[in-house]
Amino acid sequence: MKIKTFSILLLLFISAKSFAQPPLGTLKGRIVTAKDEAVSGATVQLQESGMSAITDLDGNFDFTAISPGTYVLTVSSLGFTAIKQNLIITAGKNPFLNLQLSESKQELTEVVINTTGKSYQVQHSESSTRMDIPLLSTPQSVQVVSSEVIRDRQAFTLNEIASSFTGMKANNGNGSFNMRGFTAYSPNDASFLLYNGIRGNLFLWSQQPLLYNIESVELLRGPSGALFSEGAPGGVINFITKKPMAESKYSVDLSLGSWNFRRVSADFTGPLSKNGKLLYRAIIGYDKSESFRDYQDKENIFLAPSLTYLFSDKTNLNLEVNYAHQKAVHQYDNGTFIQPKPDGTFDFNYYPDNLTVQSPTDYGKTDNASATLSFNHTFNEKFKLTVVQRAVRNVLDYTDHIPVGSIRNDSISRGYQDWETDRFSLQTTAYATYNIRTGPLRHQLIVGADYNRYGWTKNDYQYKESTRISIFNPDYSNDIPSASLPAEESDDNKRITNLIGAYVQDQVSLGQQLKLLLSLRYDNYNGKETPLSARDNKQGDELQASGWIPRIGMVYLPQENVSIYGTYLKSFNPQTSNNALSGGPFPTRTATQYELGSKAHLFNQQLSTTLSLYQINYANILTAAPTEENSHRQAAIDGTRSRGIEFSATGTIRNFNIIGGYAYNEHVVLSTSAYGKKGDRFANAPKHIANLWLKYNLRTSVAKGLGLAAGVRYVSDQVGLISNQNFIFPEYTVFDAAINYQRGRYNLQINAYNLTNKHYFTGSRSGTTTGGLGDPFNIRVGVSYQIR
Predict the structure, then answer these.
(1) pLDDT tens, 459-490?
(2) Largest CA distance in the chain
(3) Cα(293)–Cα(201) distance, rounded to whole angstroms?
(4) Helix, coil or strand: residue 764
(5) Alpha-carbon distance 195 to 203, whole Å?
(6) What is the CA radius of gyration of the chain?
(7) How does pLDDT run across 542-568, given as a tens digit for each residue?
(8) How far apart are CA 613 and CA 163, in angstroms?
C-alpha cells in the first residue's frame, strides 16, 4: 500500500510540474583554430531550433531565448572540418563554450552542458528507431542506464544492473531476465540481447553478461520485431559499447569484495596516427570470485580491442573485437534447495544458503568471441548509409548435476549432464536513412536489409542418472556415472538457420508537435537440424517460416518538454521445436503490444520521466499434448496476456542523482491446457516491482568530490511454476548503500549490498526443488585511477 500511495503522489506531482513552461536559456561561445586564433565568419547552427549565427571578428557567437532541451550544435567554416556537439540547454545562462576547428583532426564529440555535474540522464537513443530521434519523440518506452549509474552501483554484469530498470529483474544467476512479465532466456529468445543495435549475443544463457566494455545499457520495452526481427515479447536489451576516442585517455580499475572477489581492468584510448585519423581503444579485464554457496568458483578473462579510421568528417570505418573466457566449477547456477511441506506449500527458509544440488566434480569452460565491422558514410545532410558485419562464436564444455524428482527425507535424486557445443552467428545489416519534405510534412526514411546465418556445428549432449545425496551431508564420491553406462537422453547434431529480412520505416513530422512512425518488416526463416551420429535418436527439425511485422506509433508534443504517445508493436518468433514426431511443424509464436504513454523532461530538463500503459498478447506457445498413439505430441495454445503500468524517472535535481520507478504487471494464461489453467499466473512474473536509487553529491569546498548513495528495491510475491500455482516465492525488499570520494585522478568507491541480510529468492528455472537465491549481505571496494 505504501508503494501504491507513493506512486500516486509522485504521479500527481509530476503531472503538476509537466505543464509548467520552463524559463528560457542563453548560450555564448567562441570559435578558434588549433593555434588559438579566432575564426570569424563561421556558421553556428542550433539544430531543431531554427537558430543560427555567424561568428564576429573575435570568433564569438551568441544565442538568446532558447527553450531548454537537447540540441545538436554544428559549426562549419570554409577550410576547416565541421564539428557537431550534443548540448543540453538549461534555464538561465549556460557555461561559455570554447570550440576548436581543425584542418586535420576529425572528431565527433558529445558534450553535456550541465552545471550540476555528471548526470544519470540520457535523452537520445538511436536503437529503437535507428535514427537520431530524441527519446521524448520516440513512440516506445525506452530506458537507458548510463555509465554513471553502472559506476555508482559498481555493477559488473547485466544481472547486477537489472534492478535499475523499471519492471525488470534477473530470475537467477544465469542469463534469464523478466521484462513486462515475460522471461527472456537465450535459447528461446536468441536476439533479446543486442550489441549497438545488432544481433549476436556474445554470452551464452548460462552466463551473466559482463560489462567491461559497456558504455550504457538500453531497455526497449515490448516486442521490437520491426527492426530487430525475433526477440523476447517483454523487451530487448541493447549494449552500447565504448568506442575509440580522439583524445588520449588511460585508466585502471581495481575492485575487491566479499567471497574472495577480485577484479582488475584497464582502458586505453587515443589516436594511433599523427594526423588523428586512426583511433584505437583497448579494454582488458580479469575477475575471479567464489560464492556464499559451496564450490561455486568462477574466473573471467575479457579482451576488447577496437579501431576507428576517419577517412573524413563524413566517412568512417570501425572494427571491434571481443573475447571472453570463463572457467567455473558450476557453469549453471542451479540455486538453493526449497523444502516441500505436507500441505502442498513450501518452506523457503528451511535449508541453509550454502547448499547446492551440484557437485565439486562439475566444471564449465566457455570461449566466446565476436568481431564487428561497421562502415558509415554521410553523402550529404539528407542521406546516410550504414553497413555492419558481426560474427560471434560460442564454445562450451561443461558437466553438471541437476535435481530429479522431489525432496524426500532431506535427500534428492540427481541427473548428470555432459555437454559440448559450438555455436555461431553471422549477421549482415545494411540500412540507409534519407530526409525529405513533401509539402508541410518532413520524412525521415530508413530502408534496410538483414541476413543472419546462425546455429551450431556441434551439439553433443548426454544425460545419465547420478547418485542420490543427503542434502545436509552429501557424499560426492560416486557422482560421475561410468562411461559404459548408456545415456538415457542423447543429442549429437548440427543446426543451421538462415534469416533474410527487409524493412522500411518512415517518421512523418507535421510541424514540431505531431509525429507519426510507420514501420514494416518482412522476415523469412529457413533452417534444418541434422543428426551427426546414431546417438541422436530424434528426427531432425526443419524450419520454414515467414511473415510481415508492422509497427505504428504516434507522438504529440503539447509542449517542448512533454509528449504523449501511442504505439502498436508486433513480432514473431519461429518455434524452437518443429519436430514431426512431436506433431510439428507448428505456427510461429506471435507477440502483439498496444501501448499508451507520456514522457516529460522536468526541472529545467534535468529529470526525464516516462509513464506507460500496455497490453501484450502472446500466442502459439507450445505445450505437451500427448495421445495414446504419440506420447511426445505437442500443441500450440492460445497463449498468455500481459498488461500493466510503468513509471520511471531518471536524472539530476540539484545535487541529487536519481533513478527509480514502479511497475505493475498482470500476466496470466488465457486458456486451459497441459500448459496451465485459464487465469493462472505466469512464472517469475511478480505483480509489483519498485526501485529507487538516490545519490547526493557534496559540492562544498571541504567535502567536494564526496558522494553518498542509498537504494531500495521491492519485488512482490511471484509464482515459480505455471503448473503449480502453490509454488509462490515470498515478496522481498532489499536495501543498498554506497559512498565514493573523487580527488583529482583518483576515485574510491565502497558499495554495500543487502544491508539487512535479507534471505530472498529471485525466481525459478523449471522445478520446485531449487530456486535462484539472492545474494546475502556483501561489500565491494573499488579504486580507479585516471593515468591521463
Answers:
(1) 999 999 999 999 999 999 989 998 888 888 88
(2) 91
(3) 28
(4) coil
(5) 11
(6) 27
(7) 778 888 999 999 999 999 899 999 999
(8) 20
Q: Is 756 exposed, middle or buried (0-12, 13-18, 19+ CB in 10 A)?
A: exposed
List CB contacts of 13: < 8 A, sequence separation 6 or more.
Answer: none
Nearest C-alpha neighbor of 133 from the set 474, 395, 505, 404: 505
Phi/psi of residue 515, each to 5°?
Answer: -135, 140
DSSP letters spanning 672-737: -BTTB-TTPBPTT--SEEEEEEEEEE--STTTTTEEEEEEEEEE--EES-TT-TT-EEPPEEEEEE
The C-alpha atoms of residue 398 and residue 419 are separated, in whole angstroms, by 6
Please state, as a whole number, how many other Cβ atoms lie within 10 Å of the Cβ of residue 542. Answer: 15
C-alpha cell at 522: 518482412
E strands, 311-467, are: 315-328, 336-337, 339-340, 346-347, 363-378, 383-408, 411-438, 441-465
Question: Is 657 within 8 Å of 694 (Cβ atoms)?
Answer: yes
Which of 132, 478, 82, 575 lies closest to 312 in space, CA to CA? Answer: 82
Cα dist. 175→160, 187, 354, 384, 618 in Å? 11, 10, 21, 36, 22
Question: Which one, of 220, 197, 227, 136, lies nearest residue 518 by Cα?
Answer: 227
Amino acid at 496: I
211, with CB counted inside 10 A (0-12, 13-18, 19+), is buried
- Give pLDDT, residue 462: 93
Measured CA to CA, the distance from residue 417 to residue 172 in angstroms comes to: 20
Position 486, amino acid: P
Q: How far apart are CA 614 and CA 644, in angstroms?
A: 6
The span from the CA of 761 to the CA of 727, in Å, is 12
CA distance 774 to 758: 8
**Contact indicator for 332, 357 with CB cutoff of 8 Å:** no
How far apart CA 88 and CA 85 sit, in angstroms, is 10
Residue 420 has pLDDT above 90, yes or no: yes
Question: How far out from the chain centre does Cα 427 lie?
Answer: 19
CA–CA distance, 25 with 356 (Å, rounded to integer) = 60
Q: Which three cell numbers stand for residue 127?
A: 536503437
Q: How many CA atoms lie within 13 A of 315 on its CB side?
A: 3
Instruction: Look at the block and give the residue holding cell 500450440.
Output: 636
Task: Give per-residue pLDDT as tens, 513-531.
Answer: 999 999 999 999 998 889 8
What is the spatial distance between Cα 304 and Cα 292, in angstroms, rounded to a whole number?
A: 30
pLDDT of 271 higher than 60: yes
Lookup: cell for 722:
505455471
Give residues with Cβ within 8 angstroms of 352, minimum separation 6: none
Domains identified in the chain and CATH numbers: 25-103 (2.60.40.1120), 124-241 (2.170.130.10), 249-456+474-786 (2.40.170.20)
The Cα–Cα gap between 398 and 287 comes to 20
Q: Residue 389 is which amino acid?
A: Q
The answer to whether 376 touches 315, Cβ cutoff 8 Å, is yes
> How would you class 343 by CB atoms within 10 Å of its CB: exposed for 0-12, middle for 13-18, buried for 19 or more?
exposed
Task: Please state, as a whole number, how many other Cβ atoms lie within 10 Å of the Cβ of residue 528.
Answer: 15
Residue 33 grid cell: 583554430
* Beta strands 469-470 and 489-510, pairing class: unpaired
As a whole number of angstroms, the distance between CA 637 and CA 639 comes to: 5
Strands 383-408 and 363-378 turn out to be antiparallel
- The secondary structure element, H or E, covering residue 160 is helix 158-161
pLDDT tens-digit map of 38-80: 887 788 888 766 677 878 767 888 887 787 777 778 888 766 7
Calpha distance 408→469 (Å, rounded): 11
What CA dihedral angle connects 194, 199, 200 and 202, to 10 degrees? -10
Half-sphere exposure of 783 (CA within 13 A, CB side): 5
- What pTM value is reported for the model? 0.84
